[in-house]
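Intended use. Records like the one below are meant for learning the mapping from a protein sequence to its folded structure. Do not use them to infer anything beyond what is encoded.
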Amino acid sequence: MSSNRIFGLPISCFYRGGKATALGKAFSRFWAAWASLGLPPWRQVSLELTGRRTGRPRTLAVVIAKHDGRDYLVSMLGECEWVKNARVRPDATVVGVRRRKARLEEVAVDQRAPIIKEYLRLAPGARPHIGLGKSATPVECERVAPHHPVFRILYQDDPATAAARSPRRSPAPAA
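Structure written out for the chain above:
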Protein backbone atom coordinates (compact mmCIF):
# COMPACT_ATOMS: atom_id res chain seq x y z
CA MET A 1 0.00 0.00 0.00
CA SER A 2 1.24 3.51 -0.73
CA SER A 3 2.14 6.23 1.74
CA ASN A 4 -0.52 8.08 3.71
CA ARG A 5 0.91 11.42 2.64
CA ILE A 6 0.01 13.84 -0.16
CA PHE A 7 2.65 16.36 -1.21
CA GLY A 8 4.52 15.46 1.96
CA LEU A 9 1.57 16.32 4.23
CA PRO A 10 -0.43 13.76 6.22
CA ILE A 11 -3.57 12.70 4.39
CA SER A 12 -5.61 13.95 7.36
CA CYS A 13 -4.76 17.50 6.26
CA PHE A 14 -6.84 16.87 3.12
CA TYR A 15 -9.56 14.41 4.21
CA ARG A 16 -11.20 13.48 7.51
CA GLY A 17 -14.08 11.10 8.04
CA GLY A 18 -14.62 10.62 4.31
CA LYS A 19 -14.93 14.37 3.69
CA ALA A 20 -12.54 16.90 2.25
CA THR A 21 -11.13 19.49 4.63
CA ALA A 22 -10.81 23.15 3.54
CA LEU A 23 -7.32 22.33 2.25
CA GLY A 24 -8.64 19.23 0.43
CA LYS A 25 -11.39 21.31 -1.22
CA ALA A 26 -8.84 23.94 -2.27
CA PHE A 27 -6.62 21.26 -3.84
CA SER A 28 -9.61 19.74 -5.63
CA ARG A 29 -10.61 23.17 -7.02
CA PHE A 30 -7.04 23.73 -8.19
CA TRP A 31 -6.82 20.33 -9.92
CA ALA A 32 -10.31 20.74 -11.42
CA ALA A 33 -9.25 24.08 -12.93
CA TRP A 34 -5.97 22.53 -14.11
CA ALA A 35 -7.78 19.58 -15.73
CA SER A 36 -10.36 21.85 -17.38
CA LEU A 37 -7.49 23.52 -19.25
CA GLY A 38 -6.67 20.14 -20.78
CA LEU A 39 -3.31 19.92 -19.03
CA PRO A 40 -1.67 16.62 -18.02
CA PRO A 41 -2.19 14.16 -16.50
CA TRP A 42 -4.71 13.37 -19.26
CA ARG A 43 -6.61 10.83 -17.17
CA GLN A 44 -7.60 13.60 -14.76
CA VAL A 45 -10.62 15.71 -15.67
CA SER A 46 -12.95 18.21 -14.12
CA LEU A 47 -16.43 16.88 -13.31
CA GLU A 48 -19.31 19.34 -13.16
CA LEU A 49 -22.47 18.17 -11.39
CA THR A 50 -25.54 19.94 -10.03
CA GLY A 51 -26.01 19.99 -6.27
CA ARG A 52 -28.95 17.82 -5.26
CA ARG A 53 -30.26 20.28 -2.65
CA THR A 54 -29.04 23.67 -3.84
CA GLY A 55 -29.21 23.20 -7.61
CA ARG A 56 -25.84 25.00 -7.81
CA PRO A 57 -23.01 23.73 -9.98
CA ARG A 58 -20.39 21.64 -8.17
CA THR A 59 -16.97 21.01 -9.70
CA LEU A 60 -14.28 18.57 -8.62
CA ALA A 61 -11.22 16.86 -10.02
CA VAL A 62 -11.61 13.16 -10.82
CA VAL A 63 -9.59 10.44 -12.52
CA ILE A 64 -11.15 8.49 -15.38
CA ALA A 65 -10.50 4.76 -15.40
CA LYS A 66 -10.97 2.97 -18.71
CA HIS A 67 -12.27 -0.60 -18.73
CA ASP A 68 -13.48 -2.58 -21.75
CA GLY A 69 -13.42 0.59 -23.86
CA ARG A 70 -15.68 2.56 -21.50
CA ASP A 71 -14.92 5.44 -19.12
CA TYR A 72 -15.65 5.19 -15.40
CA LEU A 73 -15.40 7.28 -12.23
CA VAL A 74 -14.60 5.71 -8.86
CA SER A 75 -15.31 7.40 -5.55
CA MET A 76 -12.14 7.10 -3.50
CA LEU A 77 -14.01 8.48 -0.47
CA GLY A 78 -16.98 6.13 -0.74
CA GLU A 79 -20.39 7.66 -0.05
CA CYS A 80 -19.37 11.29 -0.48
CA GLU A 81 -21.22 14.39 -1.67
CA TRP A 82 -20.46 14.05 -5.39
CA VAL A 83 -21.79 10.47 -5.31
CA LYS A 84 -25.03 11.62 -3.65
CA ASN A 85 -25.35 14.41 -6.23
CA ALA A 86 -24.74 12.02 -9.14
CA ARG A 87 -27.41 9.63 -7.91
CA VAL A 88 -30.03 12.37 -7.68
CA ARG A 89 -28.90 14.45 -10.67
CA PRO A 90 -26.90 12.18 -13.00
CA ASP A 91 -26.46 14.74 -15.80
CA ALA A 92 -22.88 16.02 -15.78
CA THR A 93 -20.19 17.71 -17.83
CA VAL A 94 -16.74 16.17 -18.14
CA VAL A 95 -14.10 18.79 -18.90
CA GLY A 96 -10.64 17.83 -20.08
CA VAL A 97 -9.26 18.68 -23.48
CA ARG A 98 -12.89 19.53 -24.37
CA ARG A 99 -16.27 19.82 -22.66
CA ARG A 100 -18.52 16.79 -22.99
CA LYS A 101 -22.08 16.47 -21.71
CA ALA A 102 -22.67 13.12 -20.08
CA ARG A 103 -24.93 11.09 -17.86
CA LEU A 104 -23.53 9.06 -14.96
CA GLU A 105 -24.86 5.55 -14.45
CA GLU A 106 -23.99 3.66 -11.27
CA VAL A 107 -22.32 0.29 -11.74
CA ALA A 108 -23.56 -2.75 -9.81
CA VAL A 109 -21.31 -3.81 -6.94
CA ASP A 110 -20.51 -7.19 -8.52
CA GLN A 111 -19.11 -5.43 -11.63
CA ARG A 112 -16.88 -2.88 -9.86
CA ALA A 113 -13.72 -4.88 -9.01
CA PRO A 114 -11.90 -4.71 -12.38
CA ILE A 115 -12.70 -1.00 -12.66
CA ILE A 116 -11.40 -0.31 -9.16
CA LYS A 117 -8.24 -2.29 -9.99
CA GLU A 118 -7.59 -0.10 -13.04
CA TYR A 119 -8.39 3.05 -11.03
CA LEU A 120 -5.82 2.08 -8.38
CA ARG A 121 -3.21 1.74 -11.14
CA LEU A 122 -3.97 5.26 -12.42
CA ALA A 123 -4.73 7.22 -9.25
CA PRO A 124 -1.95 6.99 -6.66
CA GLY A 125 -3.64 9.59 -4.45
CA ALA A 126 -6.68 7.33 -4.09
CA ARG A 127 -4.78 4.30 -2.82
CA PRO A 128 -4.61 5.37 0.87
CA HIS A 129 -8.37 6.13 0.85
CA ILE A 130 -9.31 2.79 -0.65
CA GLY A 131 -6.73 0.96 1.46
CA LEU A 132 -5.19 -0.96 -1.43
CA GLY A 133 -2.04 -0.53 -3.46
CA LYS A 134 -1.27 -0.48 -7.17
CA SER A 135 -0.87 -4.25 -7.27
CA ALA A 136 -4.16 -5.09 -5.52
CA THR A 137 -5.65 -8.44 -6.46
CA PRO A 138 -9.13 -8.83 -7.97
CA VAL A 139 -10.27 -10.45 -4.72
CA GLU A 140 -9.09 -7.44 -2.70
CA CYS A 141 -10.90 -5.12 -5.12
CA GLU A 142 -14.09 -7.19 -4.73
CA ARG A 143 -13.79 -6.78 -0.95
CA VAL A 144 -13.76 -2.96 -1.13
CA ALA A 145 -16.24 -2.63 -4.03
CA PRO A 146 -19.36 -2.23 -1.82
CA HIS A 147 -17.75 0.80 -0.15
CA HIS A 148 -16.60 2.65 -3.31
CA PRO A 149 -19.32 3.59 -5.79
CA VAL A 150 -18.40 3.43 -9.47
CA PHE A 151 -20.16 5.31 -12.28
CA ARG A 152 -20.07 4.64 -16.02
CA ILE A 153 -19.79 7.85 -18.06
CA LEU A 154 -22.32 7.90 -20.90
CA TYR A 155 -21.24 10.72 -23.20
CA GLN A 156 -24.02 12.44 -25.16
CA ASP A 157 -21.77 12.82 -28.22
CA ASP A 158 -20.80 9.13 -28.28
CA PRO A 159 -22.73 7.25 -31.02
CA ALA A 160 -22.62 3.99 -29.04
CA THR A 161 -24.11 5.70 -25.99
CA ALA A 162 -26.76 7.48 -28.06
CA ALA A 163 -27.79 4.20 -29.71
CA ALA A 164 -28.11 2.51 -26.34
CA ARG A 165 -30.31 5.32 -24.97
CA SER A 166 -32.66 5.76 -27.94
CA PRO A 167 -35.75 3.56 -28.19
CA ARG A 168 -35.50 0.76 -30.72
CA ARG A 169 -37.69 1.14 -33.73
CA SER A 170 -39.31 -1.82 -35.35
CA PRO A 171 -38.82 -2.14 -39.06
CA ALA A 172 -41.62 -0.84 -41.24
CA PRO A 173 -44.07 -3.54 -42.27
CA ALA A 174 -43.50 -4.97 -45.72
CA ALA A 175 -46.03 -3.86 -48.29
